[in-house]
Design goal:
mainly alpha; 5 helices; 1% strand; flat
Amino acid sequence: MRERFVTALKKRWPILSRGLLVLLMIIVIVGLWAGYTFKNDWTGFRDYEPETGVEHGKTLWNWLELLIVPAVLAVGAYLVNRNSQKNEQKRADRENQIEREIASERNQEAALQAYLDRMTDLLLKEGLRDSEPGDEVRTVARTRTLTILNSLEKNRRSVVGRFLIEAALVSIKNGTEENAAPIVSLKGANLSGANLEGADLQETNLEGADLQGANLEGADLQEANLEGADLQEANLQEANLQEANLRGTNLQGANLWITNLQEANLQGANLRGVDLRVANLQEANLAEANLAGANLRVADLVGANLRGADLRGADLAGANLLVANLQEADLREANLWTADLQKAKLGECILPDGSKWTEDTDMSRFTNPKK
């Protein structure tokens, strides 16, 4: 019981000490006020006799010297001590944080080196490169790869990604003709934030992979499988995604400026607000894709399938939509200035002003409103 009481007192002492200090100051101030006002004998505040020069009691200034000044000094000392304790705690916390970061860096580097050593053994000693689909050595390699990618920070994930690409382990084209499958599948892999600029990822299986914020600028992803992958905020500027499978992919916030998406499958993909300026989308499948607010200025959409696509507020100024399929698409508030809509299929689509297209609709009022 006594120990619990002492523990509770220690926890509450800072609050209790402040309360007692405030109470003491109130008592002193009230006492001084009462004594000075009513001239009580016990306080020492009594009349001063100027004729005789007799001082019967202490003056207010005497009391201030005896009580108020020490109290102020005590409060000041308390505040200085408290501030010093806070600074010491902050310094200790900062040092602990630095130590934890250093320990984490060492652990990550050790884990990465262990992975690379093990993969080297699988390649040189256990015949990983010559293995067949379903072989245990491939299962071990994939399991280790997915595990290490989940435990590393983005810079070291980049190292793992580069290693797999340069070792020709992730692309279908590097497998045997009889077995069109990658040696190490990156399906569902965590490559978020990885720097894979200019990487050769042709025919790589990245289905369901986490590529949020990844740098894939100039990367070759021709015929890659990215179905259901998360590419939010990824940089795909000038990347080659020709004939790639991006069905249901989340590309919100991604940079696709000047990207080659010719014949790519983007059905149902989330491209909301995406930068697709000057992108090559010839014959791309964008059916039911979310392109609301997307920047498609001067994009090449010749023959593209945009049936049922959400293009509300999209910027299609100067875009080439020759023979594109825009049936049932939503173009409300879209910018179609100078867009080429020759032979485009517009049946049942909703136009920028909210009306539905009919055979009598004059589209020039949207593509050239000054005419």
